[in-house]
Specification:
Helix 1 packs parallel to helix 4. The strands form 3 sheets. The chain has a 6-stranded parallel sheet with strand order 2-1-3-4-5-6, sandwiched between helices. Strands 7-10 form a two-stranded antiparallel ribbon. A two-stranded antiparallel sheet has the order 8-9. The longest helix has 23 residues. With 246 residues, it is an alpha/beta fold. The radius of gyration is 18 Å and the shape is globular. It starts with a strand and ends in an 11-residue tail after the last strand. It has 7 helices and 10 strands.
Length: 246
């Protein structure tokens, strides 16, 4: 069984491709199914060199209740724009609290989707296409490690990994993971409701008079921003003039 979380589609694509290679079934963390397999995969996007809160909650409160007693192998595949810091160590620690062992960890670069700070934007098309092409080449290699149940850590930590994961990530989660700055440009909004349907934590509502509101449960995936067909959703002034994931 592969459990996955995906806000903009990068991790879902990786999950689908990997499942095709391994023959495993898949289940979203937002509506997880019990695991009857002997191996478990955990796939998610890295946010600010750490785990999204929704993934941390899943590992801390839910995963162990879905597993039987004969799990032989647990692995994680983390998608990122560039590097992951020590995110794999956070996963390992979360699993250890429930007596579970992380046997393998992999990271895959995917098109960047974080646009809510100065200097952050989506990748240029050529860079994004190259990342996806490289990922497709790496998937069979990762699948072969999984099928052989290799104990391996193959990740791109980047520079200053400790500072990124253990100092910057907590600050990011404390001050920047919220929905207070989201707003809608009504001149662009066509009330299609795609933001509501796409939100993985049911955090967005569209009222009968076509007012879009966020409810305070944001996980920071930016799925609503990227899915909007007219780029009507903005995050304060930070996203003005920035691109959307294609």
């Amino acid at each position: 069984m592969i459990y996955y979380f995906s806000g903009t589609g990068n991790s879902k694509l990786v999950c689908e491709l990997l499942a095709t290679q391994t023959g495993d079934s898949t289940s979203p963390m937002t509506a997880p199914q019990p695991c009857t397999d002997n191996e478990v995969g955990i796939i998610f996007p890295v946010y600010a060199w750490g785990m999204p809160n929704i993934v941390l909650t899943f590992l801390s409160n839910t995963l162990s209740h879905l597993l039987h007693n004969n799990i032989e192998y647990i692995y994680t595949v983390m998608t990122c724009g560039d590097d992951i810091g020590y995110t794999d160590r956070l996963v390992r620690k979360s699993l250890q609290r429930h007596g579970l062992t992380l046997h393998a960890a992999f990271s895959l670069q995917m098109p960047n989707t974080y646009v809510c700070l100065p200097g952050f934007d989506i990748d240029k098309k050529e860079i994004a296409d190259n990342k996806v092409a490289t990922m497709r080449h790496q998937i069979p290699i990762i699948a072969s490690h999984i099928q052989a149940q290799h104990a391996i850590t193959d990740v791109n930590r980047g520079v200053c990994a400790h500072i990124k994961t253990y100092i910057l990530c907590p600050l990011f989660n404390k001050y920047l993971i919220n929905d207070r700055h989201f707003h809608v440009d009504n001149s662009r909004c066509v009330n299609c409701g795609q933001c509501v349907q796409h939100c993985p934590v049911a955090n967005i509502e569209l009222s009968t008079d076509n007012v879009v509101t966020w409810k305070g449960r944001c996980t920071g995936c930016l799925g609503c921003y990227h899915i909007c067909p007219n780029n009507a959703i903005q995050y304060g002034r930070f996203t003005k003039g920035k691109g959307q994931k294609q």
